[in-house]
Amino acid sequence: MKIKTIINGIGYRYLSEIPEFKNGLPHGILNKKSTDVGGTFAALKCNWNYIIICPFVDLVDSIADDKNSPNKVFGIYSGVKESDFIDYINSNRIYKISVTYDSFPKLIKWLDKLNLTETFKILVDEYHLLLEDLGFREIAIIELINQLKNFNHYTFLSATPIEETFLPDILNELPYTEINWGVETKLIPTRIRTNNTTKAAVNLINEFISDKLYLKNEDYIKVEQLYIFCNSVITISQIIQTCELTNDDAKVVCRDSIRNSQNLKDIEISKISSPNKPINFFTKKGFQGCNLFTNNGLVVVISDSSKKQTAIDIQTTLYQINGRLRCNSEYDNVFKNRLWHIYSTGFVTQTEEEFNAEITTTITDSKNIISIYNKLTPEEQETLRKRDVSDLFCLFNGESFEYSHFKEQYTRFNYNLTQSVYKNGLSLRQAYNKAGLVATDINMYGKFDEIIIKKIVTVSFRDLLEQYIQHRLENNNHLLIERFNLEYPLFKDAFDLIGQSGINTCGFVESKIIDAVKLKKSINTVYREFLNIVGLNKFISYTEAKDILKTIYDKLEIKGLPTASLLKDSNIFTVIESKPRINGKSVRGITII
């Protein structure tokens, strides 16, 4: 990726003020070079129809609720009705839509029905998250990239673009634009290396509570608020419980789910817009896209090498986190260029040589799958499609397998982050230098023998399912039941289709429950397929019946071993058991009538 266009932003505060952005954002990758410059607002303000694609529902709502937008914004995610969308289209002249990754395909179908798709420009805000989040949102993100082909104009926007080394081909080929603001704000991180990040955070908070935390600018200034970013609700809960913080002391912004709520015990889950408190915790979902305001707040980032989800990419995420504390006419944080990074190092499970060898093998296996697929018979192709290819760099596009450079680059990015950057203190220093950051090191918070971290009993899948069953049996909390239904649709299917006894039979094991529910949902199809193969009024042995059922299971991709006894529950036909003598031997079997 090479710089093709540099736009002069000197003298301007926001992107929307720059003449080149009067009609929206340029096609391709836009490096805005700074946070808090109104990239989304530039799309909302112009007279073009715009779709703004967001990773989280909270961001969709935040954009839809933007009171500064001159055009009404419609937010789309799971549960939003097509009829409400059509009402919005009929009631407005210029359309601004914010939508989650997962609901983007649904939006395209709605637009296609109205012949409006080609009238829209696309903004993928904070696009570096596409690569960072691919590990747990692969289907939604790959689908998003594929769907962009329906549009002629789309912008991938970020103040911290993905490093060119890890940029997927589909993005590397796009035009590239960056803004020259004439000034560059330098972030000054303080690195705190420790063998226990949780205890170090507890030490820091205890010092803060004791009014002993001062930082030197021109003079020593007392820290009045902490903004702690840690992508682990369990770790946040441990810190809160150990420090004995209350709702008056601490604000926690994370995904508002039943499991997170129970793991946090008595601490409420807050919205980004809720008033800040002395100590504020944010997970990745909490800080992405949020605007925070303070005149005196220290940003603290926790990266625990034993918890890969907390690892922070120095070149992108570290800048993004610091950029959440905004400046305006009312707020100007005295510590705006300061950040403390509490981290541990040491986990390396794979050498670079081993990783490169594995990558080479995976690429070869992926290309072999792609090559042989079209040479197979339809039956052989169906067998191959059942193979789990999640560990390979290929995807089935509905017709054939295709290579996913996106998956390959994610694997390389993730290895570099978790196995190289956090391998040791020297590796982390090199990552800082590469990002252009001049960091200082302190050796505080390394001795904490007296600190005993409280053990947190986390809420398991079984715990939640048992709670749900109890509420359903007692039928006593309809709002909570509905919330369970939305967050854990499997619970409702399991209770309705296989019942409490079926769940017990599965031992509360999630994978077994999924298989049992899938079988129950497909059971009538199984019965019809069986009837088509066997026919009426014809005796068939139990052994033959099980073989036929196994063939049907394979066709429908149902796991588990079938038993002929399930045929007795059919509402399509009746089973008559008998034991005739065939070739001088008694054979147990059934006849369908």
Explain the overall architecture.
By secondary structure, the chain is of the alpha/beta class. The protein folds into five domains: 5-180, Rossmann fold, CATH 3.40.50.300; 188-345 and 424-442, 3-Layer(aba) Sandwich (Rossmann fold), CATH 3.40.50.300; 352-420; 460-508, no CATH class; 509-593, Aspartate Aminotransferase, domain 1. The chain is 39% helix and 17% strand. The protein is built from 22 helices and 24 strands. The protein has an eight-stranded parallel beta sheet with strand order 1-8-2-7-6-3-5-4, with helices on one face. A seven-stranded parallel beta sheet has the order 13-14-12-15-16-9-19. Helix 8 packs across helix 9 (233-243), helix 19 crosses helix 21 (510-534) and helix 21 (510-534) crosses helix 22 (542-556). The relative contact order is 0.09.
User: Helices and strands: which structural class?
Assistant: alpha/beta
Relative strand content? 15-25%
Quaternary structure annotation: single chain
Output the strand order for the largest sheet: 1-8-2-7-6-3-5-4
Count of individual beta strands = 24
Provide the residue-averaged pLDDT: 84
Short description, anyone?
By secondary structure, the chain is α/β, with parallel strands linked by helices.
